[in-house]
Specification:
It contains 21 helices and 33 strands. An eight-stranded mixed β-sheet has the order 13-12-9-7-8-15-16-26, sandwiched between helices. Helix 6 crosses helix 7. The chain is globular. The protein binds 5'-O-[(S)-ethoxy(hydroxy)phosphoryl]adenosine (WTA).
């Protein structure tokens, strides 16, 4: 391996930093030695209606049970809003930056309180009660945050579905958690183009009804004024409804382990899983990581470019920052509209201090050239962050040198929907940086590298990344399917949480995430199960079989490569290829658009019929010289055809 350049902690990063190196070492040691004491202290960073007397009660064995602060009572919206009002009622809570650069808004904490209370009252008026599931299918507008917080205020469980998902995908999520209440908008707006959210919702509701889930009420926010369908009695306008209720709503007293939200995420098999997070542990963990990982100080302007449809948006646009009384920026648009300078212009416009984005966006912007960055000031920046996928050292150095002028630390934060918050990350004032490494565990996190046989590896090693013990932000179960939770995360390596990621630890104890070791791929930072794309493909009448793998892609990180076997008599041609691409987009959404489709008369299978994905991955990578042993294949000749017709010839 080539020499890695270490970026030392600069004096300016240390100057007002909340955590220096010694504090990190001390707190980390305390946190893993005595988690009860450590979290017992830090649990007090949020307010409680009823204080907890128990802290940690978790087991990764047998049935797996995870409880934190279990006898305490609190409320998330009350922590994110009410407790700030006395001191910072007039401070901006949310800066909204529209898709159009001339469109923006600021919402103070006082205003946030009124918006959230009104929407909570609207939900109550229509019969939503504690424990009910509410689906939120929204563009990146403040009302998305109001909707989430309003749910938490009355104890309803929200399920936010990313606005880029198709009606089919939305329907599946509505049906899985039996959600009868939906909050959406007429249309979204991204890069100047409208997204038909309400029309998608209408279609999804029809599909869900056929599956047995009836949606009773749809609250519609008017965003663009575009034309939409309307079902009288079922659909109501947000602006009409909030005028009928009071701007005050008492927060429900929630038990620490009451469900907070469900967020669907892809796994290596089957349908997306409903990851369930609960109230108190999640809030403690996201507020603490938001403060220390980003070295957040009172008054900082903080911007995370994620969408609220993903976990990053939940934890680090809405809950973490608002629990800390921060000013959080919500961006409706895309990085390259109206120009490739948009991110940097928004940073200058709102004097952003902390900026958190995905490697895929950085790679695309890097490709557009430095001039788009150089023409902006970016003087306000103090901390930069990345999340969602491994960042290649070139993109990291570009972010550091060009965006940050070599003066701003980068926190490469590794975590997952399941983990609730950041687990492995540098801390700006404490951790020397290495381009491409997520560096070291956050407080209370015990990473372990394990080999294929479950043996724990010490020192310098490569293996499967597990976490040995619980942390408060961890998911508690798969909604409605605890057995799947146990099977997916705790059965591969007994007594450990298995992340699904491969990882290397270097001589300094730094962690380098190498990517998924299961059949999950990461396309532009969006997580996707290859099984989902396969199931979309085989639902097409002309397809008999499909196998999907990821391959390295310069901008997206990974691209989607599909091997498709057609029904007897079907002709493989360009028209069908286009039709299949459209079909997958319709079934899942644009994020699942296949990059390559290879028509394959046969797939490489073992004699027992198992598809050998290893071979398919290699061919997709154009690395067929190293196919390894193919002698166990039922018909080794299929491999020659696959190689001859590969779509990624260099
Ligand atoms: C990947 C996103 C390398 C990883 C918060 C993980 C990363 C999956 C990083 C979770 C990082 C996330 N470096 N890989 N800093 N952050 N990943 O659930 O493979 O959408 O398992 O959560 O993204 O994706 P998810």
């Amino acid at each position: 391996m080539s020499e890695v350049h270490v970026h030392r902690v600069q004096p300016a990063w240390k100057k007002n930093a909340l955590i220096d190196k010694d504090t990190y070492l001390k707190w980390y040691a305390d946190s893993v030695k005595n988690p009860d004491k450590f979290w017992g202290k830090h649990g007090k960073r949020i307010d409680w209606f009823k204080p907890y007397s128990k802290v940690k009660n978790t087991s990764f064995d047998g049935k797996v049970s995870i409880k934190w602060f279990e006898d305490g009572e609190t409320n998330v919206s009350w922590n994110c809003i009410d407790r700030h009002l006395k001191k910072r009622g007039d401070q901006t809570a949310i800066i909204w930056e529209g898709d159009n650069p001339y469109d923006d808004r600021k919402i103070t904490y006082n205003e946030l309180y009124a918006h959230v209370c009104r929407l909570a009252n609207v939900m109550k008026k229509h019969g939503v009660r504690k424990g009910d599931r509410v689906t939120i299918y929204m563009p990146m507008i403040p009302e998305a945050a109001y909707a989430m917080l309003a749910c938490t205020r009355i104890g309803a469980i929200h399920s936010v579905v990313f606005g880029g998902f198709s009606p089919d995908a939305l329907a599946g999520r509505i049906d899985d958690c039996k959600s009868s209440f939906v909050i959406t908008a007429d249309e979204g707006l991204r890069g100047g183009k409208p997204i038909p959210l309400k029309d998608n919702t209408d279609k999804a509701i029809e599909i869900a009804a056929k599956a047995g889930t009836k949606v009773e009420k749809v609250v519609v926010v008017r965003r663009t004024g575009g034309k939409t369908g309307w079902v009288a009695g079922r659909d109501v306008w947000y602006h009409d409804e909030i005028a009928t209720v009071k701007a005050e709503c008492k927060p429900e007293k929630m038990k620490a382990e009451d469900p907070l939200f469900i967020l669907y995420t892809s796994g290596s098999t089957g349908k997306p899983k409903g990851v369930l997070h609960t109230t108190a542990g999640y809030l403690v963990y996201v507020s603490m990581t938001h403060q220390y990982v980003f070295d957040y100080h009172d008054g900082d302007i903080y911007w995370c470019t994620a969408d609220v449809g993903w976990v990053t948006g939940h934890s680090y646009i809405v809950y973490g920052p608002l629990a800390n009384g921060a000013t959080t920026l919500m961006f409706e648009g895309v990085p390259n509209y109206p120009s490739q300078s948009r991110f940097w212009e928004v940073i200058d416009k709102h004097k952003v201090n902390i900026f958190y984005t995905a490697p895929t966006a950085l790679r695309a912007l890097m490709g557009a050239g430095d001039a788009h960055v150089a023409k902006t000031s970016r003087k306000s920046l103090r901390v930069l962050g990345t999340v969602g996928e491994p960042i290649n050292p070139e993109a990291w150095e570009w972010y550091f040198n060009v965006v940050g002028n070599g003066k701003v630390p980068i926190v490469d934060t590794w975590w997952q929907t399941e983990t609730g918050g950041i687990l492995i990350t540098p801390l700006p004032g404490a951790t020397p940086l290495k381009a491409g490494s997520a560096t070291q565990p956050f407080f209370g996190v015990k990473p372990q590298l394990v080999d294929g046989d479950g043996k724990v590896l010490e020192g310098v090693a490569s293996g499967n990344l597990c976490i040995a013990d619980s942390w408060p932000g961890q998911m508690r179960t798969v909604y409605g399917d605890h057995e799947r939770f146990v099977q997916t995360y705790f059965s591969t390596y007994k007594g450990k949480y298995f992340t699904g990621d491969g990882c290397r630890r270097d001589a300094d104890g730094y962690y380098w995430i190498t990517g998924r070791v299961d059949d999950v791929i990461n396309v532009s930072g969006h997580r996707m199960g290859t099984a989902e794309v396969e199931s979309a493909l085989v639902s097409h009448e002309k397809v008999s079989e499909a196998a999907v793998v990821g391959y390295p892609h310069d901008i997206k990180g990974q691209g989607i490569y599909c091997y498709v076997t057609l029904m007897a008599g079907e002709k493989p041609d360009e028209a069908l290829r286009k039709e299949l691409v459209t079909h997958v987009r319709k079934d899942i959404g644009a994020i699942a658009t296949p990059d390559k489709i290879q028509f394959a008369p046969g797939l490489p299978k073992t004699r027992s019929g198992k598809i050998m994905r290893r071979i398919l991955r290699k061919i997709a990578e154009d690395d067929f010289a190293a196919l390894g042993d193919t002698s166990t294949l039922a018909d080794p000749a299929v491999v020659d055809d696959l190689i001859a017709n590969r779509q990624n010839k260099r």
